[in-house]
Design goal:
It is a single chain. This protein has 191 residues and is α/β, with parallel strands linked by helices. The protein has a single domain, classed as NagB/RpiA/CoA transferase-like (Rossmann fold). Helices cover 24% and strands 25% of the residues. The protein is built from four helices and 13 strands. The longest helix is centred in the first third of the chain and has 15 residues. The relative contact order is 0.20.
Amino acid sequence: MKKMKNKTALRQKYKALRNSLSENEIEEMSLAVANKILTLPIWEKTYFHIFLHITEQKEVNTEFILHLLSGKDKEIIVSKADFETRNMTHFLLTDNTRIKKNAYNIPEPIDGIEVPSHKIDVVFVPLLAFDKKGHRVGYGKGFYDKFLSECKPDVIKIGLSFFEPEELITDVFEGDVKLDYCVTPNAVHSF
């Protein structure tokens, strides 16, 4: 019997799983994810988009990945979300970028040098769950599906997860953008 789940059930399951993690576990697993990212064939690329993790949601701590990217002199891009239009505006992360949490506790740049979606080479994608085919379950607002559809066709999409994949997400639809990789503390899954 294949284990199949819909997005709503998966959102509940993985929010509960994440909530059960201690701060130490989150730090250790986030570091393990960052170390696995070093093995990906992405390091000749220039423009890397990364989400600034929401501590309250117990997301993968992206600080470690930020250190990797700056250590390799990559152009780092962070976004600001507009909840009315579901659009994301992308800014170059520099020493002068001021970050402020929005109403949803999402750390965002206040302003800065804008970068168009089509310039981005690699996107680290937040998610709650993913399956063995590379489909992901996010928070359900559609920001990343919209953003990824605006990127160039060969943009590399990398999900970050504390947990291993589900067999199959049942209610995937056409607008859902698949991942190229998903990195967990134990493995790199390639789709």
